[in-house]
Design goal:
- By secondary structure, the chain is of the alpha+beta class.
- The chain has two domains: 116 residues, HIT-like (HIT family, subunit A, 2-Layer Sandwich), CATH 3.30.428.10; 114 residues, HIT-like (HIT family, subunit A, 2-Layer Sandwich).
- The chain contains five helices and ten strands, in the order H-E-E-E-H-E-E-E-E-E-H-E-E-H-H.
- It starts with 9 loop residues before the first helix and ends in a 6-residue tail after the last helix.
- The mean pLDDT is 94.
- It binds zinc ion (ZN).
- Zinc ion binds next to loops.
Length: 255
Amino acid sequence: MCENDLVFNSKVGRNKTAIQSPGCPFCNTDELNGIIDTNQGIILLKNKFATLIDTTQLVLIESAKHDGEISNYGSSEWLEILQYALKQWQKIQNTHEYRSVLLYKNFGKLSGGSQAHPHMQIVGLKNSDGYAEVKDSNFTGTPVVQLSGATVNISDHPIMGFLEFNVTWKNEDVKIAAEMIRQTVKYILTGYYKGRCESYNLFFYQNRGQYVCKIVPRFVDSPYFVGYKIPQKFNAERVQELIQEYLTFCDFSKN
Ligand SMILES: [Zn+2]
């Protein structure tokens, strides 16, 4: 086994499958256990089914609205959630109890998520470096839009591909970055691929003094990646078409 592999606790996994009831556990807030912190509608709690060995798995319930989603939140609503998530992520890192701490979000059936209710995950890895395989080159790409110190690009060297948007910002530009993330998610779910994409992931990184949010539309995984670790990407002409489509779709005029 490689030192950074994550080990799945199959006993917890089995309980998770057996106990899952038809109701939404995140709507039923009176029944939630292990709450660490709350902020209006946002709740940070321990993951009831922590399936990974040598980790601390937290769930961040974004909103009391079961059908809430980045693409349908208001700008300030999403900004508040994002800032809260970044703050809690940093707080866990500051404990120095973990070799690395991950912050990410699943949305939709093909994203790896098991709950529809809007949530993010913060996972502290005691012994693993979750960033070992992620390179600077995974964050650079063809520029799409720049506003103040925040940028959106399309990865030239995606981790998996095909399409990976990188939103990069410094702390002071978080408001613009939040709007870039919100509109990119909206584009992925309604504009991109004629609205046929129903799943995406967000992955957050801290790289060279900046935050990066990688936004990845999810489809069935490519066998080239599954079998050979070969990422795929679009050719330059298609990237330019996507950028035009994206810029027509998104509206950053209020920023
Ligand atoms: Zn719910």
